[in-house]
Amino acid sequence: MKIYITNMVCSRCQMVVKSELEKLGIEPLKVGLGEVELAENLTDEQKIIFSKNLQSHNFGLIEDKKSRINEKIKNVIIDLVHYHNNDSKINLSLFLSEQLSHDYNYLSTLFSETNGITIEQYFIAQKIERVKELLMYDELTLSEIAFKLNYSSVGYLSNQFKKVTGFTPSSFKLLKDKNRQSIADL
Predict the structure, then answer these.
(1) Contact predicate 146/159, CB 8 Å
(2) Separation of alpha carbons 5 and 61, rounded Å
(3) What angle, rounded to 10 degrees, do the helices at 104-115 and 65-83 form?
């Protein structure tokens, strides 16, 4: 049985969800971003308790198919931007279509209707949050960050960063309050 969960955006989220299942005496087969695989179905009582416990961590169960697909789109993009070194250039529309086994036009329409922004806008927002994170670590140069996130040039990265944040990357590094958003809030 698969269970789909909103707002799971990191490995810490996965640990929390696994812990909540274990409190119910359930050992999950697999816990991934946005989904959990179980050997058996949850009872109605377990589902109610699990759902309530998830809500206390700002997670929620996803019941309908469109919401599951929307959440999967977000999770694929988050995983791509935040957890993979993007060594090669990818075509986002083809990548999403392959990963989710749906036509990109369908995915794009569904995502825009549900979130009020395009998939591309969401992808850019995730990339900018990743740039902010890497700037805060201060371990990579802007050129290295641009390369790591597949920007064609430092100038393009800087222009996109300024357009989204209102700051140049170097101005952002000087700020005391870095104004980073939670991945789940994007």
Answers:
(1) no
(2) 5
(3) 100
- Token output for 67: 């919401």
**161, 167 in Cβ contact below 8 A?**
yes
Which CB contacts under 8 angstroms, 24+ apart, belong to 12-18? 13/57, 13/59, 16/57, 16/59, 17/54, 17/57, 17/59
pLDDT in tens, 86-100: 655 789 999 999 999
**How many CA atoms does the CB half-sphere of 48 hold within 13 Å?**
3
Find all residues with CB under 8 Å of 81, minimum gap 6, and list them: 123, 126, 127, 130, 149
Render pLDDT for 15-26 as a digit per residue (tens, 0 to 9): 999 999 999 999
H helix intervals, 92-178: 92-100, 104-115, 119-137, 142-148, 154-165, 169-174
Q: How far apart are CA 31 and CA 119, in angstroms?
A: 25
**Can you give the pLDDT at residue 138?**
87
Q: Break the chain into its structural domains and give their ranges.
A: 2-62, 65-119, 122-185
| CATH class assigned to 122-185 | mainly alpha
